[in-house]
Amino acid sequence: MVLLGLFLSAWIVALLVAATLMLILTAFMVYLAGLYRSLVAGKNRMGRSFSDLEVLLKRRHDELPKLIETCKGYMASEPGTWQDLKEARAALARAGTPAEKAQAEELEGRALEALWAAVEKRADLRANRSFLELRLRLAELETRIAAQRNAYHQEVSAFKTRLGQAPAGWLARLMGLGPRSTTSPKRER
């Protein structure tokens, strides 16, 4: 009888140890799943923020032909400004990598700044209604671009911080996730 009692108590202890180990293993797996989901969500937020920035930059890029057409007759004496803007647009069309796109966006931004400086000398162009509407739209786009660029950089920074923390960094390396480049135009108007 004593032997049966010892056998049952050993069996109960083994079951309790196994149940505890299963509970710990289950909790660890749930933690890893949550960590995985948070890393994927961070990656997706970064991607969405970058896409939103690219949409705004494309909108600005698409407004430039209208601006060129509106200004062309008024500013025939400024061929360098037009050439810079055309080169920047061509560089953007050729850009393949994010770094090339960033560089082309920077060129486009500088060309726009040169155009605005040249326009300030032309009172007749500043009075043109089409030009004023375009300038207003472009100014609004520039403001939205700056805000979205800031949001993108914040997402990248938050993700990089998360990757620097253990065990999220370890899991991210196993998943092949790395920090995204903040290579986007950094120009502020």
Can you put this structure into words, describing what you see?
The protein is mainly alpha-helical and 189 residues long. It has one domain (42-175). It is 83% helix and 0% strand. It has 6 helices and no strands. It has helices at residues 2-72, 79-94, 98-119, 123-126, 129-163, 168-175. Helix 2 runs antiparallel to helix 3. The model is unreliable at 185-189 (pLDDT under 50).
SSE arrangement:
Elements: H1 2-72, H2 79-94, H3 98-119, H4 123-126, H5 129-163, H6 168-175
> For the CA atoms, what is the radius of gyration?
29 Å
Q: Give the H and E element order.
A: HHHHHH
Helix content: over 70%
What amount of the residues lies in strands? under 5%
Task: Work out the number of β strands.
Answer: 0
For the record, the count of structural domains works out to 1
- Extract low-pLDDT stretches: 185-189
Shape: rod-shaped
In short:
The chain has 189 residues and is mainly α.
Key structural traits:
189 residues, mainly alpha
